[in-house]
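User: Teach me something about this protein's shape.
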Amino acid sequence: MELYVLARHGESTLNLENRINGDPAVPVALTEQGHLEAQSLGRQIAHVRFDLCICTRFSRTRETAEIALEGGHVPIEVEPLLDDIDVGDLEGISLEDYRAWKREHTRSDPFPGGESLDAAALRYASAFRKLLQRPEASVLVVTHEIPMRYAINAADGSDNLDGPAHQLQNATPYLFDEEALARAVAGIERLA
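Assistant: First, the predicted structure itself:
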């Protein structure tokens, strides 16, 4: 059986400030709480043998993975297709202003200078499909809330990528087998 464990990164400094970051070139560190969350993730997955860990180009996902896997000798690869949404000119704005922009636009409207939610969703579906084609039997994926939310809701058969699961805890493992991840891919592609 193949096992995919998806986890959001630990709390970052921008999570604490309620600001948006969609540019992997912007360094965003974990907070002290984020370090503790990553350590907790490590304890929760300590008895699973992982063949591979995948993270994004964002430093907070790599940092979370390294802390969670400390001493486990698991290779870590970067998968840009799982990067957070490129919010373009909205980089660094408050979460409140980001949500206000989203309320005024559709999922197919790109963020100014960035990508649309639908384009990001299709990118995530491609990443999950690529993951399904890999030879490893057990993979830890440390990514961001939105790709995880889309995967969870799509795998559950929801007609909304944003619900019912919406606010996901940091550094909490969500388990998928091959069939569930394939359902997630199909659902995301159908809804985007």
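Now, about its shape. The radius of gyration is 16 Å. The helical segments are 13-17, 32-44, 59-68, 95-103, 117-132, 145-155, 178-191. If you'd like, I can walk through any region in more detail.
User: That's plenty for now, thanks!
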